[in-house]
Fold these 2 entries.
Entry 1:
Amino acid sequence: MTEAVEQWLDRLKNCGYIADTNVAAAVHLSNHLNRPLLVEGPAGVGKTSLAKALAKVTGRDLVRLQCYQGLDATHALYDWDYPKQLLTLRATNESGAVNVDSLYTWNYLIERPLLQSLRMSRAPVLLIDEVERADEDFEALLLELLGEFQITIPELGTIRAHEPPLVILTSNRTRELSDALRRRCLYLWLDYPDPIREMLIVETAVPNLNQNLSAQIVAAVKKIRDWNLLKPPGVAESIDWAQSLLLFKDAGMTEDMLRWSLGAIVKTQEDWSIIDSHGLRTLWLIS
Amino acid sequence: MADQLVISRWIQANRRDVVNFSRFLRTHGFFVAVADTIQATAIMAEQSVANSVTTMILWRVIYAKTPIQWQQFEHLFNRYFGLGARFQNVEASAREPDATVAGQQSQPQRTFSVEVLARKPLLGYNPDWGAHYPLHPDSSINYGRMRQTTRVMLQRWAQSWGFYRASGFGSDPDWRKIMVNSLRRGGEMVNWATWGPKPSLPRLVILVDVSGSMRQYAPFYLSLAWQFVRSGARVEVFAASNNIIRITSRLRQTGPLGPDVIGPQEIGGGTRLGWAFCQMWEQYRRYLTRHTIFLVASDGFDTGEPGRISQYFPLISRAVRMVYWFNPLLLEPGYSPQSSALITCLPWCHFHVGIRDEASWEKFSRDFANQLFLKNP
């Protein structure tokens, strides 16, 4: 293993993010080659947390753009401050001649997250979260940013980043992304962690948890993931469940308590019926 | 250790390996841009890569673009660069001193010289490689020692089964043909037809995989096939890589140190087992009877369409009496069949055995003779 990858492993671990070598190698390459990193995987495996951890590790700001259907350039890149322009125009009309070009300067520009990340003096970590939720047009909009780390504003010209930001795109694969977008990014598939790593993650997130309990939680969650649920529990759900179970620890584990706490990992009625059909005792050894 | 040796040689090698690997990935559905190839090269030049696993991890981030490609990449990387037990064997043989004895001809086809390794530092599977090595029976084998074993096995495999039927040559009337001829001629029985000579169908059909991945083992299997053919038994031998060629007559005309059975330009690399089985079924079906023993000598690494294998191999298996799969990798410690071709074929094989040299062949034959093999294969 290269030293750099090991260093990334340690640095991420120190920030509370338990990564494996694949993650560390991807982060190292993204940082080294100045290329965006596209992270795909099931929900709740730590894609967004990776970006947060990177911001913490590198000491950079985190600029986050949450994607949604209908997101466009005016919400992601920049927008002109029309009320301000209008007011200026009225004021100038009263005084005399109007210079239209003076209305399209930085004074009237509202910076949105993407432009903001390019203009920051210290390059931030730019998180473009759940990019597949945005429209395909928005993907095309991102191409220039991801390929060249620049944005072209017709009135102002091309704005290039002094220092390329560390860009992390996440996707839950509810829609296939275009080849053009994939081509500009490095790729990381983040799957459910293996049980030992998941135990480490849970124990790091919930410090008071003893090893036996965390092992039981991880084993039960792993079993549930094999049951073909509509929403299989991710690592985030494991942590929530651990925190819930910790509250009942002193009272001793009963079937009722287990049922109450399972709300942390089972999120639909259909999944509940699957759990019930298997029986709670197959999940947990209840005395 | 072997991996470090590989990587150190890799660093000294030119960029052609990376370019060829990118090309290889493109043929497997990867969208590899030129920029990706450049960055993969740059990473190798800049990073102090400790082993092949790290290379694979770093390159996967660059080359893979979808979850399926992410899962496939490790397999393709290992297949292209051959970093496994097979490769370590090759490396070990490469490190051995040249065993040339004065007055005897060396055997370059059995050991890989260091020069060859340096030229192809990540030695292993490459689609352009197959059959670019001498393909004739191996002269380093002690045929005298193997003869008895081979004869015993032939008696078991290629002996007649069922009732003996005379050939009927020249004497028995072929009533069907007589009737057809007479009807054609207005009912006159003018032509007296008899049965022709009955074709002597083979009892043993051997398919030897001679692709790049079988480079180390193909000479032994050809030697075995040559000895079968030489014994006069009814044997048909086929060589398969990206094509299938019937080599029975060629084996009759060659021998150890004889001319090559297959020329370098006749057959290319990249195993297409599915295609080979398809050709066997469509073109040579007459050889696959209920008396036939079908031997396949292959490591199961296949670059063709898995669908063809699942379509044709069961047909062959049902048609013949028994299917033996000789897998040279089965003797590797800790080996378990992982390739999709093997996983598809093994349920249809009667026996999956590890044979790759004289010793393993003798052991198999001994077990077979002692009936141990049949009781507990």
Note: Strands of chain B lie at 204-209, 235-240, 244-246, 293-297, 322-326, 351-353.
Entry 2:
Amino acid sequence: MKKKSYIRLIFDQFWLKRLNRIGLSLVLFMFLIALFAPWISPYSPTAYNLDSALSAPNGIHWLGTDEQGRDVLSRLIYGSRISLSVGFVAVGLYVAIGMFFGALAGYYGGKLDILISRVIEIVMCFPTFFLILAVLAFVGPSLFNIMIVIGITGWTGIARLVRGEFLKLRNQEFVAGIQAAGASAARIIFRHILPNALAPVMVSASFGVASAILVESALSFLGFGVQPPTPSWGDILSQSRDFMDIAWWLTIFPGVAIFLTITAFNLVGEGLRDAIDPRLRKKING
Amino acid sequence: MHYALTLYMTNLLDVQNVSKLFPIKGGFWGKTKGHVRAVHRVSLQVKPGEIVGLVGESGCGKSTLGRTILKLLEPTEGKIVFNGADITHLSPKEMRPLRKEMQIIFQDPYASLNPRMTIGTAIAEPLIVHKLVAKKKRRDRVVELLEMVGLNADAYGKYPHEFSGGQRQRVGIARALSLEPKLIIADEPVSALDVSIQAQIINLLSDLQKKLGLAMIFIAHDLKVVEHISQRIVVMYLGEVMETFDSKDLTNAKHPYTKSLLSAIPIPDPNVKKERIILKGDVPSPINPPTGCVFHTRCPIAVDRCCVEIPQLRPIGPNQQAACHLV
């Protein structure tokens, strides 16, 4: 029997559980929706029609309309683009920053490690959400700014994770072997150690996407997010407050969209975490 | 002067009074509270094409010495001369071109290969780092190396977890040979393997060494293994050299520590009754090594002098040196 590569093994392990399959399918589903939003949304997300304002879900507007008569389904479909891009770009940014500093601290150790670790601890002391709020108040709310601000406040967790992995890996003999072969530090860090440290980073990143989407929704809800008329889930939810007693669909559907997305990413994260469990790793290493 | 120079040149490696101390840090500010004296004033020479066996029990500094020679660790004091050039104070960058001259084989075949890298890539990495073989010929070279260590060419695309310990050790040897080094430090290359596999690997190393004319420092804790493969033996205890001699003179060893090691080798003959020298107590801590001779706390023949005066390594026979007041 042909033995499998590590990635394949993790994927097989991941695929065993039904909840993981559901989570991953949901994530892929969200992706497709965001990608094909212009083709699948029945109406323009910004086209208002005051004649049909606040109509309950019906055959024409499946999820009803808001106070300006805009189609809620279309707005939710377009809103997924905002949520997913914030989630992925912000997390991509902080994973990159976190891996860089974590790798430096873990590989070189000594004074550099002390310096980076203290900086991480200081940044971690700030209540992240209020820091983001404060910074956005200065730079002004926009999609781009939200991504950057979440990105530069969120890297500490990844950095600590990667630092720990590097501390563990840099004393392994295969690293000494490539050092003895005369490889440069950059080559050792990026080509030899980093691929071994990626699995826990992936787990953390999938949880991170979920929480970044939640942060964006919360920011939009508070009016610090993407500015109207661009549809964002948090923003739709925020506007629904005024009509909660007469238009339940304005509250329920964006809530469900956020809930499903967050759950999906968390399921994927948990599934990955279980799949890369060290007991499995032992099985494939030995 | 002239004589000294020629003597100098005949050694591929000349380690002179090398020590390696590891600081122990503690407390809030990470102040140095003491040192672990892993290697203490060790001198040894390796001629081109010669295998020197380095023996001693666990924690006696053999591996640390091996890594210090390769400059994977910085020596605290002393001098390392390789191929006529002083490499003691070379920076990691200056060391890089020299690294292809000296390679290492590790003890643990499970930790010594990158689990995310195919065997082929792992063996090719040193070639890429030193830009030795053109990209197109790289695969051929790796396959050649695989065959040299007794593995099939189809190992190329496989991952380490698909191999047994012995096979992995062969991969480790292929990787070390890829740069065609002059010196290989084999850091307990067989200690983690089954006895039947041990013999295979030792014979492989021995064959390759003869074929390629390598010099080797063979580190082990088994005197019998070392006697089999090497021409000279260096016995270490608690970071210091106790005795050195030609392998053929093993039974003629004089130092009480070497004698106790010798008496631990089983003789496959039930009729031979031999005197077993059993050392009392444990190896003292290298953080606080004994005064005088480091072996005096366990030496069966120690006298008062041994507790105060450090014995120097001195000639006691042809090609034989020992650090003991009493031999």
Note: Chain A has one domain: 6-33+70-285.
